[in-house]
């Protein structure tokens, strides 16, 4: 079939296998261009491995450090008539590139929140890897079924305390307008913590420990976004921010339970960029279009792979780490420093429907958005027939 993007609101409902493979290849080339990264992980488990920051972590582990990687993700396989999801094609491409270089790579596709998938993952680690020395936790999901109670919790993206009126950009209608977001009630806050907080990260680490598959000195990190004043009311100090605060609790708990193994657990704060997860958050498309403009002008623009390369080489496996007062690695300074934020704030105050395309980098945002699904990538002929049935 000939595959053209089908964009519906903040999501694209199909994906291009050749484009996804190209995008994975570009990230691999970036990591390889960094040369020998020195000592690093050997056996890596990436939970949320198929897109965004998790995929970049997997690529860095494998092609930067030569590590074996086991991924866990939740993706849809293609059929004769419908393409697979981007994460499906990314994973297929990753396996192929890894295999070509003799690197072990396997992926488990299923609900990472469930105990069944945890057990399957642990069995595979035991059989094929021995023990893991790095566990990346990079899930982004709107719901989670708690394996103990069987209850399915849904997260909400709402302010906490009081309602908040701000500007937003509707990608569907190409419209900048004001939006008022009503505050979450207590139940919504607790439900969001259940989904995106640290409970499941801790559960993974408990079960990996109980199965004796954590290597001594194993490192683990979960990703967060902290941001600054412009995004605090809808992110940092909102329902999702409350959930992310719970990651700090979980990190301390993981360290406490694994002192004999000298496990290092840190939350890592990364910059805002276009991923399937962030494009679903109100305000983010507008904010990201503006930071892309400012950071490209400053020469500090980075995507997932650049951020994760920095995290691995300077924090997780380097000695130039900056830990903040909550023991978090900070990779977000190029976005959140006062000078850059002041420039973004200035644009934010000016932006209207009329000047949006002129003063923002929505063009760059939209290109990155399409790229997430394998579209708008140089060197790919989108008029060509392609077989959607790609398998791992
Ligand atoms: P993403 O949507 O690109 O990736 C999410 C991953 O989780 C995918 O691999 C998906 O398959 C997997 N997943 C989702 N539900 C699953 C389930 N039930 N079982 C198994 N796998 C499942 O998201 P992302 O933006 O890369 O986010 C990853 C992490 O990074 C999140 O914790 C997010 O908060 C954080 N982060 C994102 C940004 C940003 O701007 N995008 C910034 C800082 C931190």
Q: Mind explaining what this structure looks like?
A:
- The protein is of the alpha/beta class and 392 residues long.
- It has a single domain, classed as NAD(P)-binding Rossmann-like Domain (Rossmann fold, 3-Layer(aba) Sandwich), CATH 3.40.50.
- 41% of the residues lie in helices and 17% in strands.
- The chain has helices spanning 17-32, 52-65, 86-100, 115-129, 186-196, 199-210, 239-257, 284-298, 304-316, 333-336, 338-350, 356-359, 362-372, and strands spanning 7-8, 11-12, 43-47, 68-73, 105-109, 132-137, 143-145, 152-154, 164-170, 175-181, 214-224, 264-269, 329-330.
- A seven-stranded parallel sheet has the order 5-4-3-6-11-12-13, sandwiched between helices. A two-stranded antiparallel ribbon has the order 1-2. It has a two-stranded antiparallel ribbon with strand order 7-8.
- A hairpin with a 6-residue loop joins strand 7 (143-145) and strand 8.
- Helix 1 (17-32) crosses helix 3, helix 5 packs across helix 7 and helix 6 packs parallel to helix 7.
- It is globular and about 60 Å long.
- It starts with 6 loop residues before the first strand and ends in a 20-residue tail after the last helix.
- The model has no long low-confidence stretch (mean pLDDT 96).
- Bound molecules: nicotinamide-adenine-dinucleotide.
- Nicotinamide-adenine-dinucleotide binds at residues 48-54, 72-75, 87, 111-113, 138-141, 223-225, 270, 272-273, 275-278.
- This is Enoyl-[acyl-carrier-protein] reductase [NADH].
- Substrate binds at residue 225.
- The record marks 75 as: Plays an important role in discriminating NADH against NADPH.
């Amino acid at each position: 079939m000939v595959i053209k993007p089908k964009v519906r609101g903040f999501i694209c409902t199909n994906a291009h296998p050749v484009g996804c493979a190209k995008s994975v290849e570009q990230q691999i080339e970036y990591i390889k261009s960094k040369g020998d990264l020195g000592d690093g992980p050997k056996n890596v488990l990436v939970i949320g491995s198929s897109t965004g920051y998790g995929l970049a972590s997997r690529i860095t582990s494998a092609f930067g450090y030569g590590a074996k990687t086991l991924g866990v993700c939740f993706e849809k396989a293609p059929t004769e008539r419908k393409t697979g999801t981007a994460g499906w094609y990314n994973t297929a491409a990753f396996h192929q590139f890894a295999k070509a270089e003799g690197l072990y790579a396997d992926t488990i596709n299923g609900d990472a929140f469930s105990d069944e998938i945890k057990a399957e993952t642990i069995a595979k680690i035991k059989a094929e890897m021995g023990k893991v020395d790095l566990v990346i936790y990079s899930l982004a999901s709107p719901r989670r079924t708690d394996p103990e109670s069987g209850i399915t919790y849904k997260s909400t993206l709402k302010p906490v305390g009081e309602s908040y009126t701000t500007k937003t950009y509707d990608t569907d209608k190409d419209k900048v307008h004001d939006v008022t977001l009503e505050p979450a009630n207590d139940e919504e806050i607790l439900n969001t913590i259940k989904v995106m907080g640290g409970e499941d990260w801790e559960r993974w680490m408990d079960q990996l420990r109980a199965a004796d598959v954590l290597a001594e000195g194993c490192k683990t990190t979960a990703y967060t976004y902290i941001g600054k004043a412009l995004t605090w009311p809808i992110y940092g100090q909102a329902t999702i921010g409350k959930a992310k605060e719970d990651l700090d609790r979980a990190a301390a708990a993981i360290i406490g339970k694994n002192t004999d193994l000298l496990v290092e657990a840190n939350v890592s704060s990364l910059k805002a960029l276009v991923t399937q997860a962030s494009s679903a958050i109100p305000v983010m498309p507008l904010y990201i279009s503006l930071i892309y403009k400012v950071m490209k002008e400053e020469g500090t623009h980075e995507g997932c792979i650049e951020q994760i390369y920095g995290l691995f080489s300077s924090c997780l496996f380097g000695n130039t780490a900056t830990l903040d007062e909550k023991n978090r690695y900070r990779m977000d300074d190029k976005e959140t420093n006062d000078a850059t934020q002041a420039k973004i704030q200035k644009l934010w105050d000016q932006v209207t429907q009329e000047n949006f395309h002129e003063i923002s980098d929505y063009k760059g945002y939209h290109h990155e958005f399409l790229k997430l699904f394998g579209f708008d990538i140089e060197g790919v002929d989108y008029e060509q027939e392609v077989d959607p049935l790609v398998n791992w």
